[in-house]
Amino acid sequence: MKEKVNVTGVPETMVQTLYARAKETKKAKCKDQR
């Protein structure tokens, strides 16, 4: 499920953290599905 996230006005460092967490979560889900 894809969800559109509005990050207008969020500092770049916060976006980087959010991206890293999302990437890790996606990686963890792939391992669980195998």
From TrEMBL:
**Domain of life, source organism:** Bacteria
Q: What is this protein called?
A: Uncharacterized protein
